[in-house]
Amino acid sequence: MPSIGAPGGLLIAWNPDLYSLVSNEFGTYSLSVKLKGIKDKQLWWITCIYGPPSNHGKSDFWIELNDISNLIDGPWLIGVDFNEILFP
Questions:
Q1: Whole-prediction pTM value?
Q2: How many C-alpha atoms does 85 have within 13 Å on its Cβ side?
């Protein structure tokens, strides 16, 4: 996923000898893939997230994360930089 307005971007990589890609989802702040184990046929999701560094877009970010959670139908691994301060 290319970077938009920030350095870097998002990347998810896996060993194709162990997992195959079932589907993917691209969002403004996230990249998600659904993988299937070659041997065990287990389905699971990986999501990488980079939250907006300023207050602009925070609400959209949390809506996007909620929308992603509604897609998930099994195990889910999230790699995340929320760029959020919970207790200032």
A1: 0.80
A2: 5
